[in-house]
Each structure stands twice: as structure tokens, then as C-alpha cells.
Amino acid sequence: MAGGDVIGRARAIVGPAQVLCEPADTAPFLADWRGRYRGTALGVVHPADAAQVAAVVRLCAETGTPLVPQGGNTGVVGGAIPDASGRSLVLCLSRLNRVREVDPVGDSLTVEAGCTLAAVQAAAEAAGRLFPMSLGSEGSCQIGGTIATNAGGTAVLRYGPMRDLVLGLEVVLPDGTLWDGLRALRKDNTGYALKHLFIGAEGTLGIVTAATLKLFPRPRSSATAFLALASLEAALEVFSRLRGTLGDRVTTAEILSEAQLAAVLAHVPGTVRPLATPAPWCLLAEVTDPMAGLDLAGALEAVLAEGLEDGSIADALVARSEAQAAALWKLRHSVSEANRKSGIVIGHDTAVPTARIPDFVVRATAAIAAVRADARVMAVGHIGDGNIHLVAILPESARTTGKPLEPAAQAISAAVHRVAVELGGTISAEHGIGQSGRDALAVFKGPAEMALMDGIKRLFDPRGIMNPGKVVGPATP
Amino acid sequence: MAGGDVIGRARAIVGPAQVLCEPADTAPFLADWRGRYRGTALGVVHPADAAQVAAVVRLCAETGTPLVPQGGNTGVVGGAIPDASGRSLVLCLSRLNRVREVDPVGDSLTVEAGCTLAAVQAAAEAAGRLFPMSLGSEGSCQIGGTIATNAGGTAVLRYGPMRDLVLGLEVVLPDGTLWDGLRALRKDNTGYALKHLFIGAEGTLGIVTAATLKLFPRPRSSATAFLALASLEAALEVFSRLRGTLGDRVTTAEILSEAQLAAVLAHVPGTVRPLATPAPWCLLAEVTDPMAGLDLAGALEAVLAEGLEDGSIADALVARSEAQAAALWKLRHSVSEANRKSGIVIGHDTAVPTARIPDFVVRATAAIAAVRADARVMAVGHIGDGNIHLVAILPESARTTGKPLEPAAQAISAAVHRVAVELGGTISAEHGIGQSGRDALAVFKGPAEMALMDGIKRLFDPRGIMNPGKVVGPATP
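The joint structure predicted for all components is written out below.
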């Protein structure tokens, strides 16, 4: 079928105004926010509800048209950007943005895929509850995208990634069938865990149109600390002591290397060094509790005092005001901005078993240096999850040497990934595979796992129309 | 191939002494512990390690021999019992019982499938950590079985079911390939969540041979309360208040109907009524915290005082000693024994969204009465999970009326299941499907979901040898 007919039929489904074809209109949907991935498309379709999504999917199935679902377009692996063929439809979920139900007794809420994470947080708050996921992009990322990528963020330590927060899903399958799996159940042992296949599948097995999510009690006490540490071994010891003593009160444990902190201080206005003496590592820890009026700052101080005494902590500060806590958080939230201003960023999303973090950082840093002696290495990450983002930064002058940068970037990433996998780790902890990790996936996964994943892709999407070229499966239908 | 040849080749793999064929030897493996399911088999095979499991699976794949994995044989749905054909091999995992690794820094341990749950708990405790799953059968159930059935128990409220406790799996696939998915990672977004397919699949997609599990800080403070409640609505209100105030400290919230409590008191020696006045419902709540020296009894009392004041709690008791707490727990743990002594037990494993529990109990109780006026109904369950086990008890005299009991039992279960599904619930919250739920599954799941599950079964196990007749797929290879 000619592309024009597909567009005509899509317009008949969603209304003429909801199919964009003019380059000026489609441009924002055809590139990611960092400008690393660009594609072209027949058009960009904005369905109003799950029934229209299903009708568009049926149209694509019938005509063999590749379909690229897109939420807030805040991903970093190119998972929501079409290829260059110009044959695809981009399907935007943003009009599916209703909060369908809030159930405070069952501690759950049901929202459509196009709700922003911030809107979901607000709906939970209005019901006196917490939806705990916290991401830098929460104002614009959509809940369907966070499910498709199994998003992480700074609260994973306490509440788990998106996978742990989903009770049920509504999904349009690749043949256009609408599967109602919107169960608000805490326990359900009736066969295979289908919802877990769609979570993290990045739209390659179906399109999430709504989800029932878990809610939690709101924290009513909290405290924030900033620690200076001599080594990653010390950081692990302190984290272990915090968790062993305070348990799940430890909501966040973010680690930054001194190079990373220095980059933030150098490039982001309004940031200040919290502790006078630089140390190789610093740790930002937050503890929260649903009970009101607890002295969590005191509890934190008691645990930290042990570490200060035995020397595992070089220096420490417990925030004495919300403003002071916010200033500490600003350091963490400024990392991306600081790195962009530091040079050419080659980021990674590896995780290793927690105990292997020190070994990983040493070996991966050396591996980067072996590829490019001019690379500076920053480290920022979630120490309790084993998820350290090692960021190689090349000087801006590297753009003007005449040598293309892409091979160097690929060699650096391959080296970092190799170290992670050798230590029992993963090449993607929370960002997903999308386009960027597709080749590496085939290298680092064993053949048994690749065969099972390819088989699942073929089973769910025999025509290969669902987000082709992402994760696994044929790159074109 | 003749059965004798299969046995001969199995003996060559695992050693002659590890293949049982004599009826006196095989009998314990061919019936479940309650005596409801019986089968026959070519033999019962006891491999020593994952490589031998893989070799036995390859033998079965090559010869089309049905293979029934069995752990501690403590299940209640017939999932580990072969059919009556006599063509199957039963594969016991009990010799795979090593603790391979304990990682206190990463809060994980890796154990083989044949370790009992109690052995896993003990290994965690030896490392100063908690493995939180708690089941009545923990002394004999094996960790592979708890993974295959996604077991629940009394700590699900706080720590989740087995699915939430598994970091990685080692699985022998139906073609005999050993898949090493033993990752000790808290976050891993590299494609489809294969481990979640094997968890809860009841051995129909492969055989779990080892698992990496999450560990937690050990509780160092705890308190236990027993409440008398006028209604299930009051129970939900009190639970909501407990959780909203104390958060995840609320580890357990078990509810019993007065009829259930009375049956325990009548039939189990050494049990005593904790509160003088009978009330329609009672709630056993436990709160724990990893911090030492906390006054959790005081915190509990403060929350309960509000409920006593506004009338939502009729009466309450907070245990003042470990002995008193143990006496309260004995009431809960005596339910199965009491029910067996009360008459002919027809149990159920439904869950509904928490807010629907009162409606479910009223309607399902009426539905049971409509089938059998002589049925007494007990209710016991995990109120925070929505998982209420409604138990219909027929008088022993019903055995001697000449009318067969099985149709009445089936009609009762169908009625209870129908009410649960109408209220957005499930026919199995924690026990699984096995043989007993197979027909009901096809009735209560929609066609889209059944088609996906059947497709996954065919994809993973095209020969249909893996635990045939359980959950989904053809009943024989």
C-alpha cells in the first residue's frame, strides 16, 4: 500500500488534525532531545484513546507499516525515534492522559500511558499517597515510556524500578487486540507473567495504553546527609552500615567522584562545595520515614559517627534545613548539565554486583585511558543498585583534529561494557537498549538468551512492525 | 523408545542408585502430601547437579518423555505430580542443595534449587541478614519449588512474593540447554525479562536449578498485636491506618473470621482466645524494624488507640512477651490443622483488589450457601494483599449420603472463583494453577491472554515434555 493511503486511513481513525505530515510539524517527534538520533516517517499520529491505538495498530499490521510508539521523547537510547526509511508511523500517546481511577484503600491508581510522571505523582499526592519514582525528566516523560523502558531514577534503592511499581497493564498487541491486564492485584499466580514481558520491552511487543500502579505512604520525616569518602570500598562499607541500621529508610544513596563534583562546581552556577576538604568520593544519602516527628537527622548522625570514628568516613554533613538539603540535591541534579559543559560526553549505564563496584571503576577507568589518553572520567551513580554511570569526557578540541569521533566513542563504550560483563554486570541498568545498545546486546548476551528473546519477538510480532530496529528482531518488517 | 531404555539411559547419567523404579521407593514422589493427586511414572530420577539435570532433559527431549520436576512436594495444586500414563520421569531436585555463594555486601545469596527454604533462611542468618519468605512448609519446601510457584506466605505484605526476591536464575531449558541467568544485579534493562517467565511457570517452561536471591537487614525490634473487629470494613480501615502511619514496618496483617478462630480453638490443643469478647473478625498484625531498641509496641498502641477511640477497633491486645506473641502466631499457624479436623475442606486461593474484600466475602459466602446449605465457611487471609482464603467445610456425614462429593466441591469452587473474577480478582493468588486450576484458568482468562500463554509454552517447549498437563499447553507430549 502506498504511504498516502496509510495516512488517509490513519486520518479516518484519529481525525485529520491528529496526523501530522508537514516537516515543520513532525520534526520534534523525529529526533531525540539530545539530537543523537534522527529518523523520518510517513506521519505522526495522535490517537485519543486505546481503541484508536488498536485501530492504528491494525492498520499497520494489515499494511506492514512500521510503528514507533513515543511518549515524552525523553529517552537516551533512541528507542522512540524511527529509522531513516520514511515508511514508519510515529504513534504518540500524549492524548491518552487521563487518571482513570485512584484507590486509596488498595493503594493503587490507574492512569493512561500519556500521563506525565509528574501528573501521576500529583494524583498520588492528592490522594494522600506517594508515587515514588523520581527522574530528572519527570515533568515531561510519560508513564507509558517509563514502563516501556523500565525506568529507574534516584528512588530505586527503596522502591525498585518501574517493574516493581506496576500492578497491571492494558496493552495493544501487535495484531491490534486490546489486552485488558489492568489488575489491581498484589498477588496473582495464574500462569505466565505477561506484564513483565511488556515492561522493559521498549514497545517491541505491544503498546502500553494504561497501567495500574502501586502507591505508598507519604514520607513525613526525612534527613539528608553528604559524606566525603576516601575510597569506594569505604562508600560500600558506609552504605552497608546505613542500610543495616536504618533499613529501607535509606531511600537514596548517590555517589559522585571528586572529578564529577568538581565539574558540577565549575560549570553550574549556584553550586557550592558542601565540605571544605576534597575527597576522592562523595555520597548523598537521604533517609525518609512515613512516621511524623522522627529525629532522622539524629539517627543518621549516630550511624555516621561510627564511620567518622573508625575512619571510613573522612567528613560528613547532615542538612539542618530544607534549603540545605536542596543545595545538596542540586549537586546531584546538575551532573548532566555540568558534563555537557565539560566537553564531549560519552556516557554509560552499566551495573555490576554491588561488591564489584570498586573493581569495576578501577578497571573501566583504565580501559578508557587505554583507548583515549585525553579522556577525563567522571563517575556518578546509585551505589546501592550497583549502577555506576561512568562518563568519559573528551575535550571539545577533539572535534577539530580531523579524526572522526564516533569510532573512539564506540571503542570506549565497548571497553567499559566488556569490563562490566566480565564482572557479572550489565551494559544497561536503567536506560534500556533502544538503537544504541542493539549491537552490544547481541555481543554480550549468550546465544541461549538471544534465541529466546528473538523467539518471543517473533511470537508476539510475527510481522515485525512493532518498533523495528530496537532491542531485538529484524530491523525492518 | 521403550520405557526401559529411558530408565537405562537415565541411570547412565545420574548413576544406578539415583533412579528409583520400585513402587515402594517411588510412592512418596507419586502423590501429594494431602493425598489428592496421584500419578505413575517410569521412574524417579535424582540428579546431582545442573549438568545432570540438563542431560536428563536432553534424554527426555530426544525420547519424547514427559518430565515432571519436583521439589519438596509441598504444593497444593498437584503441580509436581505426574499423570496416570506411567510414561513420565519425575525429576527430583533435592540433591542440588548447595549454598553456592553468600554476598553480604551485595545483600544476595546464590543457592541451588534443592535447598529447603529453612536452609536458605539459615544461610542468610549466618551472614547477619534476613531472607524474608516465611511459609508453613519452610522446613521441607525447596527453593526451586517456591520459585516455580511464585510462593507467597505471611511476609508478602512487606517483602513481596518470591518473584520480588529473585535477582537471577539458572535454568535448564526444554531442549537441555543450561541458561546462566544467575545475575546478582539490582537493575538490568537489557531486553525481555526472561526470569519472570520462569518464575511462577510451575516447571512448564524449564527447570530452575539455582537462583540468586535478595537479602535484607534483620529486624531488631518487633511487636505483635491482636485486634477484635466488628467488620471487614473496619479491618481495612485499621490496616490502612497502620500502613499509613508505620509504613513498611507492618510486616504481616493476617485476618481470621470468628468461625475460623473458633475452629482453631475447638480443634487445636494449647490454643486460647486472646480477647474475652468474640468479634466477627480478628486481625494479627506484626511490625518489625531493623533498628534496635525501638518501642514498636508503644508505636502500635498509639495507632490502635485511635481506632479504639473512634470505635473501628472493638478490642485490642499488644503482646508483652515473645511467648505471648508466639501464642498469637500459633492461632494463625493452626488454621490448616483445625480445618482438617472440622470436616471436608474445600479451600480457595482467591485475591481481589483490597477494597473489594468485604464485598467478595459477602457474595462468595452467599454463593457457597446457594450450592450447599450444609457448608460452613471459614475465612483466613492476608488482608493487605487482598488474598482471602475462603474455606468451605462440609460435614463428615456428607461422605455417607451416597451422593459423590466431587461435583459439589467443583460447584462451590466455580461459584467462589466467579465472584472473585467479577470483582477484578484472581482464582489463584499464591498457590498456582498446577492440575487443579487448569480448567478454571481457561474459563476465567480471556482468549488474548490464553493465546499468548499457549504461544509461549509452544515456543519454549515445542515437544510439550515439560510438566505436561499443568497450567497450559497439551496434556501429553
